[in-house]
């Protein structure tokens, strides 16, 4: 059985729209440009779909030297990567505090108007080092504004099992993976310790405990609680968490592609 990469996805702004790729460079943050930007309240605390489902409908495109943002009933806006007046600020992601750069008043006004809440857009510069939980990583491993780990992997077969049990198709986009794979059995990824894709090594750090976000349709922002209640029926563990997918840490840089073979290293 040959296991292949079937999707590569990044989410440049935490909780906002997905960009699907044919290939991606890997850097110390994970897939290049993944979750390097984030929406925060005026105190610097992160805002996600969990509180504000409408964030799901913010479209994001990488335009070379800027982000292009779009949203329902809003004009699109270009946000330069460097606006010439970046202000450093402390931001909070869960229990972590780290330094970010404010992306300016125009982006803040646009987001505040769309979300109907005062907020700012921030960027994680190369100088910021947000460490991964030491229980699952090495001392030099870092992560962007992702919840806790650089990369999320899910197999097509694992999602298909959920769809079968719910007796209707469930979109992979609800679970917001970076790497989707085909060619393995459902939940085969649960037993892996490390993998290799096109000479890039990945440690399989821990299973991904799912929050409420998969209940949010990424195309409409509507809530469907049956997604998580159905998943809980067969994926709730002894610790009461509901798991789907595996969190990965890349152990170096390189480039991976849709169609690359996934080699189980252990």
Based on helices, strands and strand pairing, what is the structural class?
mainly beta
CATH class of the largest domain: Mainly Beta
Rg, alpha carbons: 18 Å
> What does the overall shape look like?
globular
Count of DSSP-assigned helices: 3
How would a crystallographer describe the biggest sheet? 8 strands, mixed
Termini separation: 16 Å
| Order of the strands making up the biggest sheet | 2-1-13-12-16-15-14-18
- The number of E-state strands comes to 18
Label the CATH architecture of the largest domain.
Beta Barrel
- At CATH level 3, the topology of the largest domain is M1 Pyruvate Kinase, Domain 3
Number of domains: 2
Mean pLDDT: 96
Strand content: 35-45%
User: CATH homologous superfamily of the largest domain - what is it?
Assistant: PK beta-barrel domain-like
SSE order: EEEEEEEEEEHEEHEEEHEEE
Parts with pLDDT < 50 across at least 5 consecutive residues: none
User: What percent of the residues sit in helical stretches (DSSP H or I)?
Assistant: 10-25%
Structure report:
This protein has an eight-stranded mixed sheet with strand order 2-1-13-12-16-15-14-18. It has two domains: 4-31 and 132-264, M1 Pyruvate Kinase, Domain 3, CATH 2.40.33.20; 37-123, no CATH class. The chain starts with a strand and ends with a strand. It is mostly beta strands. It has helices at residues 105-115, 156-166, 226-235; strands at 4-10, 19-21, 23-27, 30-31, 37-40, 59-62, 66-71, 74-80, 87-93, 96-102, 120-123, 151-155, 179-182, 194-197, 200-209, 243-250, 254-257, 262-264.
């Amino acid at each position: 059985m040959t296991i292949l990469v079937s999707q590569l996805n990044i989410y440049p702004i935490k909780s906002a729209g997905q960009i699907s790729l044919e290939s991606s460079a890997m850097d110390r943050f994970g897939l290049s440009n993944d979750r390097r930007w984030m929406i925060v309240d005026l105190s610097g605390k992160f805002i996600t779909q969990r509180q504000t489902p409408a964030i799901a409908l913010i479209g994001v495109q990488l335009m070379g030297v800027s982000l292009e943002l779009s949203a329902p009933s809003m004009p699109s806006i270009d946000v330069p990567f460097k606006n010439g007046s970046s202000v450093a600020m402390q931001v909070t992601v869960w229990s972590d505090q780290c330094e970010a750069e404010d992306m300016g008043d125009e982006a803040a006004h646009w987001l505040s108007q769309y979300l109907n809440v005062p907020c700012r857009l921030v960027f994680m510069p190369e100088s910021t080092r947000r460490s991964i939980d030491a229980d699952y990583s090495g001392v030099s491993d870092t992560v962007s504004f992702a919840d806790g780990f650089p990369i999320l992997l899910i197999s097509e077969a694992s999602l298909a099992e959920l769809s079968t049990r719910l007796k209707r198709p469930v979109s992979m986009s609800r679970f917001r993976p970076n790497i989707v794979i085909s060619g393995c059995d459902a939940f085969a990824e649960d037993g892996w310790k490390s993998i290799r894709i096109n000479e890039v090594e990945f440690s399989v750090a821990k299973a991904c405990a799912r929050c409420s976000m998969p209940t949010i349709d990424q195309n409409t922002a509507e809530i469907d609680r049956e997604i998580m209640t159905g998943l809980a029926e067969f994926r709730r563990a002894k610790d009461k968490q509901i798991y789907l997918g595996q969190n990965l840490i890349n152990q170096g840089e390189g480039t991976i592609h849709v169609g690359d073979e996934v080699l189980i290293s252990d």
